[in-house]
Amino acid sequence: MRHPRTRTTRTARRRMVGALAAGLLCSAGLVSPAIAAAAPAAGSVAPAAAEPSRAAAPADGLALTPPMGFNNWNSTHCRADFNEEMVKGIADIFVAKGLKDAGYQYVNLDDCWALPSRDAAGQLVPDPVRFPGGIKAVADYVHGKGLKLGIYTSAGTKTCNPAGFPGGLGHEYSDAQQFADWGVDYLKYDNCNNQGVDAKLRYTTMRDALRATGRPIVYSICEWGQNKPWEWAGDLGQLWRTTGDISDSWGSMLSILKQNLPLAPYAGPGRWNDPDMLEVGNGGMTDTEYRSHFSMWSVMAAPLLIGTDLRKASQSTFDILDNKEVVAVDQDPLGKQGTVVSSEGGRWVVTKEMQDGSRTVALFNESGTAQRITTTAQAAGLPDAPGYTLRDLWQHRSYNTAGTVSATVPAHGTVLLRVFADHDWATQPPAVELGLEGSPYLEAGTPAELTTTVTDLGRTPARQVSVALTGPEGWTVTPTSSTRAASLATGRSLRTGWRVTAPAGTPTGSYGLTLKSAYRSPSGTPVDSALPLTVSVAVPPPSGTSYLGDLPWLETTNAWGPVERDTSNGESAAGDGHTLTLGGTTYAKGLGVHADSSVAYYTGGACETVTAQVGVDDEKGANGTVTFEIWADGTKAAATGVLTNAMPAQPLTADVTGAQVVRLVVTDGGDGIDSDHADWADAQISC
Q: What positions carry a catalytic annotation?
């Protein structure tokens, strides 16, 4: 959860985490940094965790599949709208909208449900304004809907909110008994204000207290991954946070994903890696990005705790959360977390073994442009077979494949497939892959040449194949070669050239193209498919030397808050940075970022040199280690070694002659994504 002082700096949060004996902060919603040490660089495969011995499913029968439900924090924080009415409303929606039937069962309260002080007997007191009927009445209401209630406290003297709500440290047995008496079914136990007491000891004591109540209560250990709970918490609780807090941004979700993926060996029935709650529907990402978020959490067998206020949710949000085929991946009783097959260039292949012998394959595109991502059924772990059935879990369609598992995946998108080595593959139409070749960057008024491909991946032929490409109203999209093929055999493609022109005066920005194909299976069944694509209308920098902070960028990714122009990264809000300062020297111009970060500029082959003074901003104190890289298209043109806050600004120069796109990349220096506020001071480009 993130507490009302979410504006507290990420820097401060990290410093506070380092000063836990002073009991300063939480991650039940604030980013705890320590676990980030395991995070790999962008586009790289994180080293797999050492394989622990796989324990049998716990005898208590709790959380044999990852818990599913709701937690209010991401949508309400500690605001007044977190109250009894909201909790009951969420329970009602679970039933009315079919989420209960999909598997969601826990309605969980986060921080701020109690008064700041215990009563004279040392008991917790529910806030009478928020919960006038008390917690038991809420639990009874939720139970009456066939659902379960969760509650929150911290393994410290106080919870994480600055108001100082009472924590459970030293009150474990009495608090656990209160929870049981109220009918609580789930406890999230945070890590704030822990007075430096050993983590394993604190979490073990609450485990024992919960057991002593005799009530089955799922135990969520929110330790932020500081002490590698995946190595010891399997004997204590049913799930443990592996990372700091998620926020509603692509960079945050991506960073947490990369930290959690290597921990697959530790997951299993009754013991789950928890990469934090879902942000789906909160508005900080696109629907494409939210589908990726939901897909990857499901492939990782992560708890699925809805973090948006369902009373205000759009239909597209419900469509994502209620995709029962994707939920079934998460809830598969075998309990395997997906593992990384490959991740080169931000093209991720993650495969999850399923109880029925099939494999779920996630083709995940980290990058900002469409990418072809490919693997094989054998690489996913399936045996050799004449053919395979391939089920698209978002399109809800089945196909046959000769063994190739491949798709052109939109920017930040995920294609989620379930692949079976079954005997009925031939009853399905052949899988056909749509693709686009050529630069996705256009200049208004100038024709661009693109090539589309339609490729038969199936064991059977695709017949009467046709293709069409359409663009925004007013654009000219003209084929320059054939748009039809009588038949495509396995592995063969229909390649069609297109001339695409955005009208002169088209504003810079991203625009959608749609690639559609139609074909027939050998039995004559008609099949159509569509691939949404994005192209960018861009303008190269003017001739001469320009500050990069003054130029429009194509896209940015930042692990904390937005990229800032002419100030440091600051914190999570836009415009909250400070004067760029490296080693005591201030700079009026530049970019402030936070690793992992990427800032892309269209240069159109017209530029020669990028220069900058780079380093960790002084706002970080002694914290932060980073490396800086300048990429010219797909080539690393320049890089620093590891830089720390103790080092003065370092000059960095790159030859980018002929590049269509230049990217400024900052990665972690090897000690985790922790306090990595990085400055591209005086960053300039010569064209």
A: 190, 245
